[in-house]
Amino acid sequence: MERKEQTMTFYTPDVAKIKGNRKYQRPTVPTNKQSMSAQKRQQYVDQAYTYTRMFGGSLSGFSLLMLICTSPLSWVQFLVTINGLELNAGLWTICNHELCWSHTPKPPYYLQYSRVLFITSILCILVGLGLLFRSCRPTEGIISPELDFKVSILSFCSAFCLFLCLNLFLAQVEWYTKSDLESEFLWAYYLNWCSDVLFVCAGIISFLNYVTLQSHLPEQSVSTTSQQESRPTVQPEKVKLQATTAEKSRPEKASK
């Protein structure tokens, strides 16, 4: 009977070689290149929070720019039913006609209340943008979630004030169109509603950023405390014993 010869093959993987020696093959331990250090991971997380703040701030800044650009424009167009005359008016502009409003306050003071709320809305969003610009300066330490909470509150306050302003302006228009006027709102009025929606979106983004950062902070505190616990500490009792032994050894040497 013929025997079948068994052959064994050895596998030698390609490994790094020493420069100048082609025959030497140094064994290498496989490493995971996709692993990421905790410090680098934390850096990416902080960048994500910063970019989210910048996105919310850009929404607030764009809506503020729309408010400033549309405030001196006419928001509504009146049509006199008797002679077909067209009159334009806005929050800060008047149509210079006896059927339209003027700058003198008259009850029920819808126009004056809406102007005050409009200014309050702009001031709230300016304070929020100022806080965001102040946080862009290089500071040390962990990113605080209190900034996102403050910005979200200011954005919601600005959106609420603008909402009341637009509704009071609508009540003002309806008050003057009861007699001989017909009204039609212009695109500038609807752009203010778009700004109001953007304020709400900016507040929601800032609040979500605050919630996620607040939930992420305990992990950071645990990691810092574990690092502090892992550091070697010198016990005070051992230090005292070493000091007493050193003091006892000194008189013995002096007596010798």
Structural commentary:
- It is a single chain.
- Helix content is 60%, strand content 5%.
- A three-stranded antiparallel β-sheet has the order 2-1-3.
- A hairpin with a 5-residue loop joins strand 1 and strand 2.
- The radius of gyration is 36 Å and the shape is elongated.
Q: Low-confidence parts lasting 5 or more residues at pLDDT below 50?
A: 220-236
Order of helices and strands: HEEHHEHH
Structural class: mainly alpha
Total number of helices: 5
**Strand order, sheet with most strands:** 2-1-3
CATH architecture of the domain at 55-216: Up-down Bundle
Please write the CATH class name of the domain at 55-216. Mainly Alpha
Q: What general form does the structure show?
A: elongated
The fold-level CATH name of the domain at 55-216 is Butyryl-CoA Dehydrogenase, subunit A, domain 3
Q: Quick one: biggest sheet?
A: 3 strands, antiparallel
Structural topology:
Elements: H1 38-70, E1 76-80, E2 86-89, H2 110-135, H3 146-176, E3 181-185, H4 187-230, H5 236-255
Antiparallel strand pairs: 1-2, 1-3
Helix pairs in contact: 1-2, 1-4, 2-3, 3-4
